[in-house]
Amino acid sequence: MGRNNCYGQHIQWIQWLLLLQRQAAFVRLSTLLKSLKEVPLTIVSIRAVHPMFRGTDPFPVQPLTSTYTSTAVPSSSSSSSSSSSSSSTTDISSDWSSATRVIPVILQFESSSRWPDDVSAISRIKSAFYLQISRAIHALNPRASKPTRVYCSVSLDSVDIVMDGYVFRLSIYYDRELVIRTMMEKENHPYQLDQR
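The chain above was modelled as a monomer; its predicted structure follows.
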């Protein structure tokens, strides 16, 4: 009985430590994103929407193993140029989602009159933001020591960032987009959602 109780306490301690690790990774991610000067608009909100941050996920996301991280993601010094390093990182990072579950994160930028009123144009603007975030993070890596490097993979509708072994998938929320889509549906205007 005593042995089972000790084992249960041990499991609880491990779960608690992993929770602290996940929260620390998200805080570090938020700090990094808010420090990016290359992004034209200020980030006003960064929200992790995974249930494990609310303590309601029975099987929380586990971090990537150190072996996978070190072998799957090469350092920028292993490449002859920054462009080849960036491309090799992107190719390998396509396997991140198969190696572990990603943690969805919602970004919201400050209001701006430069946002378009067309659904397709909004999608393209978002893609440009994802690319800008990815480039800004890649630019930081050569100045960082290997343990603190951050790796990311950009796509048309999101950007994946590996932070402390956890894969965060960033998506942009633009409140006006929801209004535009709702209005177009009510007016029965034929419009085509992003099918890329």
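Residues 24-186 form one domain.
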